[in-house]
Design a protein that fits this description.
The chain has no helices and 11 strands. It is an all-beta fold.
Length: 119
């Protein structure tokens, strides 16, 4: 059974920092691309940052220079360091694992962790 468990969400003032963590079980973690998505009410889930199994990273334009995604395969963990947070970063953040096998996409999702940025 695949499980992705997020932690680290909370409330922070604008300009503050948070570190989100996602620990995976039930998958061969090192073989999966990992990503963080976020969603606010009434909007589609959007990709925030991703890191491939080989360690290549990419970011949404809105978070470049402020957020850093990293992974530690030995701990089966992907993290998202969020600095200089803005009110528009407020959302539920979801961890995602992805792997394509024989043309078939295999995706798993965590339950999400809420980040609130407000003064």
């Amino acid at each position: 059974q695949v499980q992705l468990v997020e932690s680290g969400g909370g409330s922070v003032q604008p300009g503050g920092s948070l570190r989100l963590s996602c620990v995976a079980s039930g998958i061969i973690f090192s073989m999966y691309d990992m990503a963080w998505y976020r969603q606010t009410p009434g909007k589609q889930r959007e990709l925030v940052a991703s890191i491939t199994s080989g360690g290549r990273t990419s970011y949404a334009d809105s978070v470049k220079g402020r957020f850093t995604i990293s992974r530690e395969n030995a701990k089966r963990e992907v993290a998202l360091q969020m600095n200089s947070l803005k009110p528009e970063d407020t959302a539920v953040y979801y961890c995602n694992s992805h792997r394509a096998v024989n043309g078939r996409d295999m995706d798993n999702w965590g339950k999400g962790t809420l980040v609130t940025v407000s003064s």
